[in-house]
């Protein structure tokens, strides 16, 4: 009933850009914070960026600050992750996830354990 579907991944060269989308069905995102997480082979899933239900509060991992931008369009029930200046170390499966909450989002709270509705992931590969 609660479903999130990621799209927009692919293969890009270093320095390139991708825009990931996370579309929700079965529920509306109006009252949900959304996080983007990624997991590379042999690593633990890490928080990339999170956004509050209203979009007024965002957080970013240090590794992506200045390069990635999270946004949301609640009318379209979709959250986006614009990724610029991509690096090989950005290569991972990217997941979006939701948790029902309102208010400000903190970097400390942008952790996978706090999110319970997950998409299936989309592969991002940055390579020459």
Describe the structure.
With 128 residues, the protein is mainly β. The protein has no helices and eleven strands. A hairpin with a 4-residue loop joins strand 7 and strand 8. The chain is globular, with a radius of gyration of 13 Å.
What is the fold's blueprint, element by element?
Blueprint: E1 3-7, E2 10-12, E3 18-25, E4 32-39, E5 46-51, E6 58-60, E7 68-73, E8 78-83, E9 92-100, E10 117-118, E11 122-126
Parallel strand pairs: 2-11
Antiparallel strand pairs: 1-3, 3-8, 4-5, 4-9, 5-6, 7-8, 9-10, 9-11
Sheet/helix structural class = mainly beta
Approximate strand percentage: over 45%
Give a quick account of the main beta sheet: strands, pairing sense, barrel closure: 7 strands, mixed
Cα end-to-end separation: 40 Å
Number of strands: 11
Tell me the helix content: under 10%
Provide a count of the helices: 0
Q: Rough shape?
A: globular
Please outline what is shown here.
It contains no helices and 11 strands.
Structural key phrases:
128 residues; mainly beta; 7-stranded mixed beta sheet; 4-stranded antiparallel beta sheet; 0% helix
């Amino acid at each position: 009933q609660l479903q999130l579907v990621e799209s927009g991944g692919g293969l890009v060269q270093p320095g390139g850009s991708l825009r990931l989308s996370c579309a929700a069905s079965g529920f509306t995102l109006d009252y949900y914070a959304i996080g983007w997480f990624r997991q590379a082979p042999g690593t633990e899933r890490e928080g990339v960026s999170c956004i509050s239900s209203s979009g007024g509060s965002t957080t970013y991992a240090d590794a992506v600050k200045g390069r990635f931008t999270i946004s949301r369009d609640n009318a379209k029930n979709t959250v986006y992750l614009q990724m610029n200046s991509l690096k090989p170390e950005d290569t991972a499966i990217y997941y979006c996830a939701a948790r029902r909450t309102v208010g400000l989002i903190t970097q400390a709270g942008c952790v996978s354990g706090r999110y319970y509705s997950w998409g299936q992931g989309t592969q991002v590969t940055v390579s020459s």
